[in-house]
Structures are given as C-alpha cells and as structure tokens.
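Narrative of accomplishments. A recurring question from our advisory board has been how the design workflow behaves on a single, concrete structure rather than in aggregate. To address it, we present the structure tokens for one chain from the evaluation set, followed by the sequence designed for it. No filtering or post-editing was applied between the two.
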C-alpha cells in the first residue's frame, strides 16, 4: 500500500473520482496525447472504463495511477503513477500531462515523487517505464528520473522500449 495522495512543489497527486472522467476524456480525445499510448483516442465511455480499471488496481493492489492537479490553478492536468496490470511487462510508473502544461518539468516532478513513494513503501527492486520508440519526450522524462535503457519488450502484440531504475541506483541518485 502506498499513500493515496502525494504533494510536490507544484502538483497534487490524488485519487481519481467520477467527475475526473470528463477532464480525462478530453485528454484521451487528443491524438497528440494518445498516439504513443497503444490504444488511440478514447471517448467518454472508454475513459470511464479506464478510470474504473485504475481504481480497481488501487483496490486490488494498494497502488495505482494518481489524478494530477496543478496546485496553482487547481486544474486537473493528467495522470501519473504505478501501473502494473496482469498483462504488463514490468512494474511501471507512467506519466501523461495535458499538452497546455507540457515543457515545464511537471511530468518529471510528479513521476519523481511517485517513484520515490513506491521505493519508500514497497519492496520492489526495480521500477520501469514502457515507452513507444517514437516518443522522445517520454524517453527524456525517463532519463531525467535516472532510468536507463533495458531493451525492447513485447507488449500486447507490439514492441516497446523498456527503461528502468533499480533500488540501488535510486538510492544513490537521491543522495
Ligand atoms: C511525455 C510527457 C508526459 C512529458 O510531459 P512534460 O511535463 O512536458 O515533461 P517534462 O517537462 O518533465 O520533460 C519533457 C522533456 O522532453 C524534452 N522534449 C520535448 N520535446 C522533445 C523532443 N521532440 N525530443 C526530445 N526531447 C524533447 C523537453 O525538453 C524536456 O526535457 P528537458 O527538461 O531536458 O528540456 C507529455 O509529453 C505527454 O503527456 N505526452 C502524451 C502522453 C505520453 O506519451 N505519455 C508517455 C507514455 S510512455
């Protein structure tokens, strides 16, 4: 079990609620947001099921993706956190941010806090990121977190890049 909320300098990571479905569906409807996510654009109903699965993972496993609010504006701006469904290649901390907020280090800030939180509260040796080969922004976030390239991994009939950070490396990087 990890904390259900995390606060960083600029972000609040919290549990999803049903009113977030509309805001998340807006992001899921943007091709620039979903093009490297493996599922393409999603409508409100798809997003409702996606968030139900997010909350189901929290319920079954005691961890899961957080809804992310920008503290300054109070706006919902994305999703960051642990993701490890039954068919996923590795324990992942993933990230997705509203394009209006890209390029300010927010994905890195939120993901760093989530990685710290997982290593502090769970007995895991490694945290990964599963990244589409054509997604350099996401690769950059992984590298800024101290993750290194581990190789290609099959995922749901496709292939993705696996980045990761070990507990040992994380300890050294946070000193
Ligand atoms: C990937 C994503 C979360 C990054 O969010 P963000 O808040 O802008 O990320 P950050 O600002 O923390 O870092 C982005 C980095 O990518 C860099 N970058 C931006 N465009 C780039 C490009 N075309 N090539 C390489 N690096 C790029 C930025 O310069 C920045 O690095 P820097 O701090 O060294 O300058 C955001 O683009 C997103 O939500 N994409 C859609 C969803 C997605 O693909 N999620 C990842 C699934 S694995």
């Amino acid at each position: 079990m990890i904390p259900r909320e995390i606060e960083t300098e600029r972000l609040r990571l919290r549990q999803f609620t049903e009113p977030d479905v509309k805001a998340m569906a807006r992001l899921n409807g943007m091709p620039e947001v979903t093009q490297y996510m493996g599922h393409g654009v999603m409508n409100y109903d798809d997003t409702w099921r996606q968030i139900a699965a997010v909350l189901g993972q929290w319920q079954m496993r005691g961890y899961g993706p957080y809804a992310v609010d920008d503290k300054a504006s109070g706006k919902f701006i994305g999703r960051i956190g642990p993701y490890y469904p039954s068919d996923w290649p590795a324990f992942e901390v993933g990230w997705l941010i509203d394009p209006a907020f890209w390029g300010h280090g927010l994905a890195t800030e939120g993901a760093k806090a989530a990685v710290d939180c997982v290593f502090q509260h769970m007995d895991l040796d490694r945290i990964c990121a599963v990244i589409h080969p054509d997604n350099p922004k996401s690769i950059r976030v992984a590298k800024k977190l101290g993750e290194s390239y581990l190789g290609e991994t099959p995922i749901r009939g496709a292939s993705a890049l696996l980045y990761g950070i070990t507990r040992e490396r994380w300890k050294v990087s946070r000193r």
